[in-house]
Amino acid sequence: MAQPGSRKFRLLMYQRMINRWWTVTLTLALVLWGYAALLWGTEYYFADPTQNPLPRLSNTNAIVLLAAGGFSFLFTLFLITIRSFAYVQLFGDHLRLVTPFLRLNIAYKRIQRVHPAEMAALFPPRSISSWRRDILAPLASHTAIVVHLTAYPLARMFFDLFLSPFFFYDKTPHFIFLVDDWMELSTALESARTSGKIARPKPKPKVTSSLLNNLK
User: Fold this and answer.
1) Residue 188: what are its φ and ψ, rounded to 5°?
2) What are 19's strand-pairing partners?
3) Which residues contact 152 (CB under 8 A, 6 or more apart)?
4) Measured by CB atoms within 10 angstroms of the end CB, which terminus of the chain is less buried, N or C?
5) Confidence of residue 6 (pLDDT cuts 50, 70, 90)
């Protein structure tokens, strides 16, 4: 087993949500820039403004389009950067949940039970909206870890602000972690739940000078 804190289990659902958003914001940036370029191009092409079928692009409107496109592009870069900043990490006496906008420590003593479940079983396609089905579709057959708690460390509505709805399947205290290695996370969490801490590897015995002398 990996040493406490040495392994970061990436949250695949969070990455999936970010990946959907950055493609939208990038498309928006390209559309805004493309529209400005089209208007400028038609003004250049038609020497007579009365023959131009498109509206004339004023300096103010040009600045607005370029600035909005630039903001969308920068936001795209921001989303691409943070998509890997969502993970679960195990430490000596607690589990750490990290996202770009949330950092939460959950003591192992809060964990009631841990069990694996297929995402499609937790969120049956017929019971969720069409846009959620579209988000879940590539990950529906993946196995997630459901971590049931005695109580949330904070109010549930706080987590609803910063986490995807796919982190919860009902109103009971729990988290759903869809990670890149559910078997290792499940084994480590179950061990931590029963013992109250992650076992640390025993240090290798040091060979002292007195021991070396006895071997001569």
Assistant:
1) -65, -40
2) none
3) 159, 173
4) C
5) low
Cβ contacts of residue 51 below 8 Å, gap of 6+?
none
Return all residues near 169 (Cβ < 8 A) that are at least 6 apart: 122, 123, 146, 176
CA distances from 67 to 22, 132, 201 (A): 18, 32, 54
User: Sheet harboring 174-177: ordered strands across?
Assistant: 111-118, 143-149, 174-177
pLDDT digits (tens, 9 = 90+) for 102-135: 899 999 999 999 999 999 999 998 888 888 888 8
Measured between alpha carbons, how far is 42 from 38 in angstroms, rounded to an integer?
Answer: 6
* Cα 31 to the center of its chain, rounded Å: 27
The model's confidence at residue 35, banded by pLDDT at 50, 70 and 90, is confident
Q: Which two tokens stand for residue 51?
A: 């023959």
What does the alpha-carbon distance between residue 10 and residue 110 come to, in Å, rounded to a whole number? Answer: 22
